[in-house]
Amino acid sequence: MNKVSIRFFDDREVRAVWDEVNSKWWFSVLDIIAVLTNQDDYNKTRNYWKYLKAKLKKENSQVVSNTTQLKLIASDGKKYLSDMFDYDGIIKLGKTFPWTKANRFIEWFTYSDETIDWKSKTKAYALFESSFIDNIEIGTIKGLQQIHAYLFGSLYDFTWQIRKKNISKNGFQFAIVQYLENTLNEIEKMPGNTFDEIINKYIEMNIAHPFMEGNWRSTKIWLDLILKKNLKRCVDWSKISKNDYMNAMIKSPSSDKEIKSLVKNALTDEIDSREMFMKGIDYSYYYEEE
Question: Distance (Å, rounded) from C-alpha 84 to C-alpha 23?
């Protein structure tokens, strides 16, 4: 059981582990408790779960019987056995909290697997173990299109196609369609042998925004593949907060100092780690949430 996923609800982590034998996800009970009680203190969260578990057992509730224990990485970097619930267990646990937030959490948890984002995210997970990843062109427009097609194939009717409309976000105008083809050709010619060169290329690709949707999710994988090939490094995206990343990228067209500092400090040599890859997918999708 080494496929680990991180979901985000109200900017809080909900860790999950994939059970290959039973083909289902198990979710951290303490993470769910922290979400539902809005608690940041680990010890208080753990104590509350002990209290709740004892209370539910006394009431002969079926909730506790659904619990299993699996190892999760803690803040000290070590793995510890943690109480986990499967999908049904999480729904039952949520219903023991008679609060509006619990209802909103259950709604989010129930329907998140049916969204385009989750479906494409599942494909992104699969990319790590697919032979397709070894055939992606590194650092080219075609390579980025290959990634986009893999993530969003059958989900969008414009998958891998370079956009034909002008788009903007939060007042920022991405590359004008009239010049987009030339812009992409120039980006492809940019060198990518050093860290600075690779990040410069990444920034320019983000400014170009070649697709109607799914640009940042595709370009983050594109960036990691370039770093992996040329520097034997990849990014541990969990070390970069969402706000810091978004602010740095907003500034990047005029100043690349912040984004380069953030990425450089988050580099790791764990380029063949499935867990690192999965964590990168989780965080890159989290950055996209409004």
Answer: 15
Residue the block writes with tokens 């993470």: 31
List beta partners, residue 15: 6
C-alpha span between 126 and 147 (Å, rounded):
12
Contact 146, 136 (CB under 8 A): yes
Distance CA 62, CA 252 (A): 52
Along the 290 residues of the chain, how does pLDDT read in single tens digits? 457 778 888 888 888 888 877 777 889 999 999 998 888 898 999 999 999 989 888 888 878 887 888 888 777 778 888 999 988 888 888 888 877 778 888 877 776 666 777 788 888 888 988 889 999 999 999 999 999 999 998 788 888 999 999 998 878 899 999 999 999 999 999 999 999 999 999 999 999 999 998 998 999 999 999 999 999 999 999 899 999 999 999 999 999 999 999 999 999 999 999 888 988 898 888 887 75
User: What is the residue whose two structure tokens read 């978004």?
Assistant: 246
> In angstroms, rounded to a whole number, what is the distance separating the alpha carbons of residues 193 and 289?
32
Q: Is 165 exposed, middle or buried (0-12, 13-18, 19+ CB in 10 A)?
A: exposed
Torsion angles phi and psi, residue 38, rounded to 5: 55, 45
The phi-psi region of residue 214 (left if phi > 0; otherwise alpha if psi is between -120 and 50; otherwise beta) is: left
Q: At what angle do helices 274-288 and 215-231 cross, to 10 degrees?
A: 150
Q: Is 224 helix (H, G, I), strand (E, B) or coil?
A: helix
- Which residue type sits at 148? H
Structure tokens at 165: 């409309």
- Return the biggest CA–CA distance within the chain: 69
Nearest CA-CA partner of 188 in 204, 176, 171, 164: 204
